[in-house]
Design goal:
The complex is a heterotrimer of chains A (326), B (547) and C (277). With 326 residues, chain A is mainly α. Chain A is built from 12 helices and 2 strands, in the order H-H-H-H-E-E-H-H-H-H-H-H-H-H. Helix content of chain B is 28%, strand content 19%. In chain B, helix 9 runs antiparallel to helix 11 and helix 15 packs antiparallel against helix 16. The N terminus of chain B is likely disordered. The chains are: A mainly alpha (326), B alpha+beta (547), C mainly alpha (277). At the A-B interface, helix 2, helix 3, helix 5, helix 7 and helix 8 of A face helix 2, strand 8, strand 10, helix 7 and helix 13 of B.
Chain lengths: 326, 547, 277
């Protein structure tokens, strides 16, 4: 077997305990929360009498202990069944599958934008630490990082949707517009502009800073001084040597931010009325829908694990000093 | 959609800002899309799409099972009740699927004449069998409110396809049935539900009814889409082609969407009260404060009588005197509420008792009462501490919680707010009784027996939400409630409830502070808004959009 | 070498800003005596109109200035405690993991990954729904999802550092592994950690604000996040209600960043000097 395939398989096998810890932890957190799915249901549907409440609890197996429910959940999971969502009255798999594309789109575009633009600007700033360009970009990145995403989102809506009428106020695409093909893609793109901007600004600032700081530090390393002494052109040093080495921490961040961004999207998705994972998970918590929360978390855990795997592979390529341990 | 809308959209944009004229709309469906250019015509225009801010996204959309306003908001356009409330009708009602109703002298039967020539959205005819099935199998057995109203329903006789006779095993006040008609009698198609697991029937999500609109699509997290019913029984209606409920979870979103001309209408105070003043100045928007008379919510302070201090009437009276209802109405509800002193709102003239003791705002009197009760100010000026649980349902309940904490601090009661989310709040108050005082918003549903007397009646098992879980038990009050439940004479029944209000106002099992309902904000092109007392949850068949 | 003059304008600016904030937090009872949540004036009074309420009042008539100064206490307390907890725990795990390698690394990284795969914000939400909002819960909830960054970054630094000459030299000199980890590697990873500390404090402030935005703040305490959340329903009619605490929040986060950055850069300088020696 080629070493890469072995590596992948081993990593996926190693991810199983991670998933187990994640599952147990989330299960415990939600089970410890006061009130259950039936209390949440009552909150939305209004009064019920004692008989109905008892019947509902029985139906959702809430009258049994948490241990029983966990056992039932795990044995169903082993058969590939994610369980039943009490909040949506549908199988968890179908609810999660419905939201997955939107989430991947929002996360993917935001991450790509933040990483590419952020590190590019970082290189610009880090090419000459201390220059006016560096000072401007560094300060701007700090400012970006200090503004809460939801706040930015609210302001962007007021400016670009309410006043200028340039961009839609929320949602993922125009409601039941019957658009297809390119028109639909354009419509979705228009809907993504503001949420992506609100979500990615913080991370853009982060990548800019990471890249710039790392580059500034590397300029002082002996090998950089040696390169300068050899009389290589500055551009060549910047791109081939400094930036290439400096990208390592930024790539590390890329792995970590997958989960953080998913968390940040809870607020952004609610500000922009986007049906993604963030809002779904928040709903699962507020409706005490344990199987749904576990489904969302499992699914995002898989995404994050895959992202980290890619990051680790990229490590080996970028920094020869780090060896892949198979 | 019609080919006219780009022009229209440009027209709208131009009127809002000249700069926007050159900007092509990138997204969002243009409003209206009317097929007519008669912008000033006062006769109804047919066609168009009404876009509404979605309130919540109920998973079980069946109003026959879940009789809640969140469900009715959408489902009432698809599934119809036997009768609807109206401003001008006899007994405040207007026929829907029933054309007439009559109760027997002995309170043991009610006869409904049903509308002829009505068909379900799938083409099958609507008959008395549908009503009989809905009543016996759904309203009585499964519905949250129907289980109270139809408790004694025994059979429904159907002598012909358009007559349904409800037979009761014990005298049931016709007055109660009549008042409950709009809320509890949503009729389901028996042919789709018979011999199925009703609570799990797919038709609970993809509704099939007789109403003016057909359920077309639900995109979770995005929208509900309803289309016109071409075969609606009322000729010439509905006027709209489509209704879209777009979900906007953020509190500021509805106001922005209205201003951005992406939606036409936001009901149930989706535009926060605090923003109304400003939004009412926006050209093209109109604020409707009526149309909710049948949906009164009551702001109350719930009291745990198991707490020694709170079991003392003087302490409860002190709390009542500490609350400045004027402040609550003017500052928290910005005038969109009425002070309340008893459990039945003034909007219901049949049962409302105006002559109740009114606890005036009087902190000095409150302090004197607390002193009398033996709770003197101790070190630091505090008499005793309480846990205060404001229900997280509305912004206003939380604000009132903040206010109440301050008001109580003034009379020496140290209230610590416990902020819970909905499930935790319901469990703490109604199951675990783990609270001292709480802020709640029970709904008054046109008759005290539907969901109001349950707040005072004793002996209910723990865990029943929005009921007397307060550890309060009072013999005369229980007796009055039982007596009224079996009283078939309307006037005498109303008298018993008036008596009940006096008892409650005196004994203060809980403290009524204000009655409030909601606000609708709509574009001024939307016509026939708020033309009945349950407008937001009625069928909207006569709503239209002017050009 | 570590003097005031040596740390650059950014750090000086940041530290001054933070010192001013700290002073404000300490002096809160003097600047605005009494309960900051008391309904002390007419509602929705605009700023600069009334000397008694220089920054105006909110929807219920609570003084905005009192909210800002008392809010700085709660906000800073939550942020500092949760960032400190997260950093200490995280860098400990990261150093051990990166340096010891093998089975320890594997186990610790699995744990870190487990925490990382769950979005920090969701963990916080779930933790708060477990025990209701309150200061200790908020601190716990925020740090619960924040320590993994410190662990990962420390580990990455350690991994890259442990191949370097001075560590190899220490090994040749016969220092024990843990001694090398804590005496040679951790101090060298300090630069990125200071940056991260700033990020942690800042992100704690922002997470607290976002939680309050969703209504999960402690209702008995005033924080800037809860003020913004309160004010945003009237964002257009009374913008000052969310702008004033927003400015306080942005200024604090900026101050933290400037200070952190300046110190991290200075640390980088001294490290270079050491390397050069």
């Amino acid at each position: 077997m080629p070493p890469l395939a072995t590596f992948l398989l081993k990593r996926l096998a190693a991810a199983l305990p991670v998933l187990a810890i994640v599952l147990l932890g989330s299960f415990a957190l939600l089970e410890a929360a006061p009130g259950d799915a039936v209390d949440a249901y009552i909150g939305r549907s209004g009064a019920l009498d004692a008989g109905q409440i008892e019947a509902l609890r029985r139906e959702l197996r809430l009258d049994e202990g948490p241990a029983n429910r966990l056992a039932a959940y795990v044995s169903a999971l082993a058969r590939g069944d994610l369980g039943w969502s009490s909040a949506f009255e549908r199988p968890v798999a179908s609810v999660v599958a419905e939201r997955l594309p939107v989430t991947l789109l929002l996360m993917g575009v935001s991450t790509a934008l933040a990483f590419l633009l952020g590190s590019l600007l970082g290189v610009v700033a880090g090419a000459r630490p201390g220059s006016w360009r560096d000072r401007f970009l560094s300060t701007a990145s700090l400012a970006l990082y200090a503004v809460p995403g939801f706040w930015l989102g609210l302001v962007l809506i007021v400016v670009f949707s309410v006043h200028l009428h340039w961009l839609p106020i929320g949602g993922i695409e125009a409601v039941a517009s019957g658009r297809t093909g390119l028109a639909r893609i354009g419509d979705i793109a228009a809907h993504m502009v503001l949420p992506v901007a609100s979500l990615s600004m913080i991370y853009l600032g982060l990548y800019l800073r990471l890249m710039r700081d790392r580059m500034a530090a590397i300029w002082n390393e002996p090998f950089a001084l040696a390169l300068k002494a050899r009389g290589l052109s500055r551009t060549r040093i910047v791109w081939r040597h400094i930036a290439r080495n400096a990208i390592v921490p930024a790539v590390t961040m890329l792995g970590l931010q997958a989960a953080a961004m998913l968390g940040g999207s809870v607020v952004i998705e609610s500000v922009f009325a986007i049906p993604g994972f963030g809002r779904l998970a928040a709903e699962a918590v507020s409706r005490r829908d344990t199987p749904l929360l576990l489904g969302v978390i499992l699914c995002s855990a898989l995404i994050v694990i895959l992202a980290n795997l890619l990051v680790d592979l990229a490590y080996g390529k970028l920094d020869p000093r780090v060896r892949i341990r198979t | 959609m019609s080919a006219f809308f780009p022009t229209r959209r440009r027209f709208l944009a131009a009127s809002a800002s000249a700069a926007a004229l050159t900007v092509l709309p990138l997204g969002g469906v243009p409003l209206g899309g009317t097929q007519s250019g008669r912008a000033w015509a006062q006769e109804p225009v047919r066609g168009g799409r009404l876009v509404v801010a979605g309130d919540s996204e109920p998973t079980n959309l069946n109003p026959a099972i879940v009789a809640s306003n969140g469900v009715f908001f959408v489902a009432s356009k698809v599934i119809e009740p036997l009768a609807e409330q109206s401003y001008g009708g006899t007994d405040g009602l207007e026929p829907r699927l029933a054309t007439s109703w009559e109760g027997s002298e002995d309170g043991l039967s009610v006869t409904f004449r049903l509308r002829e020539g009505v068909s379900w959205h799938d083409g099958k005819p609507f008959t008395a069998a549908d009503v009989a099935f809905s009543a016996l199998e759904v309203w009585k057995k499964l519905q949250n409110l129907g289980r109270v109203v139809f408790r004694n329903l025994e059979t429904v006789e159907t002598p012909d396809d358009h007559t349904a006779i409800f037979k009761f095993s014990a005298p049931t006040p016709f007055q109660l049935i009549r008042n409950a008609l709009p809320v509890v009698t949503s009729v389901l198609p028996a042919h789709l539900y018979r011999d199925t697991d009703i609570a799990r029937n797919p038709a609970n999500q993809k509704l099939v009814g007789t109403g003016p609109f057909v359920f077309a699509e639900h995109r979770p997290g995005e929208y509900f889409l309803l289309r016109r019913n071409e075969n609606y029984w009322k000729k010439g209606e509905p006027l709209l082609d489509e209704i879209v409920y777009q979900f906007l979870p953020d509190r500021a979103a509805a106001g922005n969407a209205l201003e951005a001309e992406e939606i036409h209408l936001a009901a149930f105070s989706a535009v926060p009260l605090a923003d109304l003043d400003r939004i009412s100045q926006v050209p093209g928007l109109k604020v409707h404060a009526n149309g909710y008379e049948g949906l009164t919510y009551q702001l109350v302070v719930e009291i745990n009588h198991r707490r020694k201090e709170l079991a003392d009437l003087k302490v409860r009276q002190a709390i009542a005197h500490a609350i400045d209802r004027d402040f609550v109405v003017k500052t928290i509800f910005l005038g969109y509420a009425k002070p309340a002193f008893g459990p039945i709102p003034a909007t219901d003239p049949t049962f409302f008792e105006p002559d109740l003791p009114r606890a005036a705002f009087d902190p000095a009197r409150a302090e004197a009462l607390l002193d009398e009760a033996g709770y003197k100010r101790g070190d630091g000026g505090t008499r005793f501490a309480l846990r205060l649980l404001p229900a997280p349902f509305f912004n206003e309940t939380k604000q009132f919680g903040d206010y109440l904490r301050q008001a109580l601090a003034k009379i020496g009661i140290d209230a610590q707010i416990v902020g819970n989310d909905t499930p935790a709040h319901l469990k703490a108050v109604y199951t675990d009784h783990d609270f001292d005082i709480a802020v709640a918003t029970p709904v008054y549903r046109s008759d005290p027996a539907i969901s109001t007397t349950i707040l005072f009646q004793s002996g209910l098992p723990a865990g029943v939400p929005f009921s007397n879980q307060y550890g309060f038990a009072d013999q005369p009050i229980d007796a009055l409630i039982d007596q009224a439940a079996a009283e078939i004479d309307g006037a005498r029944r109303a008298g018993l409830y008036r008596q009940l209000q006096k008892e409650v106002a005196q004994k203060l099992p809980l403290i009524n502070v204000a009655d409030f309902s909601f606000i609708t904000v709509a574009r001024d092109t939307v016509r026939n808004v708020s033309d009945n007392p349950r407008w937001a949850v009625s069928n909207w068949s006569n709503v239209w959009i002017a050009g | 070498m570590t003097g005031w003059g040596n740390i650059g304008w950014q750090a000086r600016f940041g530290l001054l800003l933070l010192a001013a904030l700290g002073l404000m937090a300490l002096a809160a009872p003097l600047i605005a005596p009494g309960d900051p949540l008391a309904l002390s004036g007419p509602p929705l009074l605009r700023p600069f109109l009334d000397a008694a309420h220089p920054l105006g009042t909110d929807r219920l008539g609570r003084d905005v200035l009192a909210g800002i100064v008392h809010g700085s206490r709660t906000t800073l307390m939550i942020a500092l405690f949760s960032a400190a907890a997260a950093l200490m725990f995280g860098s400990l795990i990261g150093t051990l993991s990166g340096f010891l390698g093998g089975i320890v690394d594997l186990a610790l990284m699995r744990l870190t990954e487990a925490f990382q795969t769950v979005p920090a914000f969701l963990l916080a939400l779930a933790a708060i729904s477990m025990s209701g909002p309150g200061i200790p819960t908020l601190v716990f909830a925020i740090s619960l999802g924040n320590w993994t960054q410190a662990a990962r970054v420390t580990r990455a630094e350690v991994l890259s550092l442990r191949e370097r000459d001075f560590v190899a030299a220490a090994r040749v000199l016969g220092m024990r592994p843990l001694e090398i980890a804590f005496r040679e590697i951790l101090p060298n990873a300090f630069g990125p950690l200071v940056s991260l500390a700033a990020i942690s404090v800042a992100s704690a402030i922002l997470i607290e604000a976002a939680l309050s935005f969703l209504g999960f703040g402690d209702p008995n305490r005033v924080t800037w996040g809860s003020m913004i959340a309160e004010g945003r329903t009237v964002l257009r009619a009374a913008p000052y209600l969310s702008v004033v605490p927003g400015i306080a929040l942005v200024a604090t986060v900026l101050g933290v960043h400037f200070a952190g950055r300046g110190l991290a850069l200075r640390e980088g300088v001294s490290r270079r000097e050491r390397v050069a020696q």
